[in-house]
């Protein structure tokens, strides 16, 4: 796990860096808010441990700036304050967790691992390809802030295609995966389902009801099957 620590108190920084490193983490330390913001904005970290009281730029400003810039790296706030308002403001700005000083590095490490497990679970429940996001829990597909609900079979078909963008799934593979058993190869249930799915995606793609297969992210491959266009 790669962790960015933004903390101006050197004793705490040394304590956290050595404790996390002993548990297998790779820790980068920044001692002020401006340096921490730039490092976090460049990315490459699995999590950020961010103190609230920092020189140059305080932690809440760093957090707000990162979320505003589209940086969604998980953040755990560190604070010596016990005021509820600071914690609530941090969480409302997009922090994922907080810890009050003093704290045990074992607990910080455990919370970092919990964040990683939670995010891994969210990634497994979401598929992304070609600008579309499929939420496997709600059975909704979205694009550019808009979304539409799918039937169980539409969802299963889209999930199959989005797992491997650009790769062709044959009708036989689709029948087996979506319907769960062999159909007559001459059946048109796959084509009917694809047609319904394309109609739902057309609105999200802004192509309207008259969208052609080339405009749809689901492409027909003559004599083979279907694939999801990745670009």
Task: Furnish the topology, listing elements before pairings.
Layout lengths: L1 E5 L3 H12 L4 E5 L2 H10 L4 E5 L7 H10 L6 E5 L4 H9 L4 E4 L4 H20 L1 E4 L2 E4 L4 E4 L2 E4 L2 H12 L5 E2 H9 L9 H17 L12 E4 L3 E4 L3
Parallel strand pairs: 1-2, 1-3, 3-4, 4-5
Antiparallel strand pairs: 6-7, 7-8, 8-9, 10-12, 11-12
Helix pairs in contact: 2-3, 6-7, 6-8
Descriptive account of the structure:
With 231 residues, the chain is an alpha/beta fold. It has 2 domains: 2-124, Rossmann fold (3-Layer(aba) Sandwich); 126-228, Arc Repressor Mutant, subunit A. The protein has helices spanning 10-21, 33-42, 59-68, 84-92, 105-124, 152-163, 171-179, 189-205, and strands at 2-6, 26-30, 47-51, 75-79, 97-100, 126-129, 132-135, 140-143, 146-149, 169-170, 218-221, 225-228. The protein has a 5-stranded parallel sheet, sandwiched between helices. Helix 3 (59-68) links the parallel strand 3 and strand 4. The two termini are 30 Å apart. Mean pLDDT is 86; it is low at 207-214.
